[in-house]
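Tutorial sheet, problem 5. The two components below are modelled jointly, 565 residues in total.
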Amino acid sequence: MASRRLTIISVIARRLIAALPAAGFGLASGHVRRTAFARAWRQAFEDLGPAFIKLGQLISVRPDEFSDELVTEMRSMQDAVPAVPASVIRNVIRSEFACDPEDLWATFDDVPLASASIAQVHRATLAQAYKPVWGEELPAGTALAIKVVRPGAAEAIRADVAIARSLAERVARMRVARRFDPVALLDEFAATVDRELDLRVEGRFADRFTFDFRDDPKVVAPRIVWPRTTARVLTMEFMTGWRLSEIDVAKANGVDCYALAVHGATAFMRQVFEYGRYHADLHPANLFVTPDNTIAYLDFGIVGYLTPEERMNITQVMAALVYRDPDRALTYSAKLGVNVPPDRVEPVRAGLGELLDGTFRPDGTRDFAHFGLGFLKLLGQHGVQIPSGYGLLIKSLATVEGVARALYPEIDIVETAKPFTTRILGKAMGDPARLNERMPAAIRAALREIVA
Amino acid sequence: MTDNVMSFFAAWMLTHEVADEGLKAAVLRGEDGGPEGMGGGPDAFVNGLAAMVAEEKEKLKRDLEARARGEEVAIEQQTDPAFEELRFEVGELRGRLDNIEGLLETLVRKSGS
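Model answer (structure tokens):
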């Protein structure tokens, strides 16, 4: 543990020292200096492996805590690592099932399909028909994707988190950060990674997703083969098509990018505003498209959950953006735990109004990322603590906008949200409890208007 | 007495007329409410909602007219969501049992080896 601690410190120190010339030895302008050091942190995290790659991904969703430059760098973090040999993966499978891959599946391909910091994916075929949790039976011979946790990944991540936590405790004692609580950030990170390391959690979410979108054949997720799944091995349906990162190939094959962008954005809105559970790790490599314009969601390692109350309050904040209503945004953000001190309400409100007015691009469409990330930044500038779920959701919506725009640059995601937010709020207006609560005030207001 | 009743209905009719005109204007504003026309805060929400309700009204009107002509109107068959949810819960339970069965098979293999 002591040697790993030294490695961590030396890798970070080496990268930061190497960044000194680019940072003008600390004399360059603020932005140039911060960009150089942010790049050094990102490179150090990539060098240090899975735990730090995941930590970087968490930092990338906290623009309220970290500088723009660091958030941008961490967003470009590459979670692609060299594959481990097939023999090592076979050993994991043997230790999980006490038999060879060929005894579990009709075929198993030793060449990996993908390799990331936590898991590696191999192709296989189903040996016998299986009825999944939802939908049609999967016949024998169905193509499968087998996700296997890399050996030692869990232990290495937990050990690194323990070391990073002890370093963070020292940083916290030095009080170098104004609002940033490194220990709380690491605890949040440990909880996220723990969930991601148990692949059954991901499998259950994928099943739930399939059920939620049962009425929409154009949105799918891989179904899980449970008898061949453990905490470290996930057996799921193989999705054919192109990753959004290969969108040019998809376009050449006749995919309707506009339909796909609108449908993809709408599907995400449904997850947030209707179901309150959403894929929180969306990026072009986690989305597949097929020639018939079906969207397949993959990799449910990081997901977000909202209670019905949170869902309604988030819908209200979105409605505030759609209808450019700063008071509504502040009222319902407060209900989500964003508590602006009374003496800061006016400047925050003014800043919010400016953000809402400045969300337009030159082509007339609105820019959610500008609003969402700008709002987080604004709250950070005024010393307002932001609940982690709130930051994650805003980052997810901004990412969906980015993905949709990669498909179809002129899409207006705020306009896409309009029917959702309006319908949901309209439905909520008819709720008897709400009517009971609001009706006396409404009648009083009407009477005041009549007698005025 | 007669005058009072007439006045009451006149007021009632006027209220309806004003409300109807107000609603129609809101629907028009809601339909026109593109990105440039959305600066109205809460009022813009009411306009948007009015436009959506008007869409539903038009759909209902078309259905009723089609029925009056004797045409068959496709009624959306909605499965009871609670029943669907229950089916999913049962499916999920089956998945968990399948998973436990797989685990037991592994344990048997491990104890036999």
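Marking note: The two ends of chain A are 76 Å apart (CA to CA). Full credit if you identified this.
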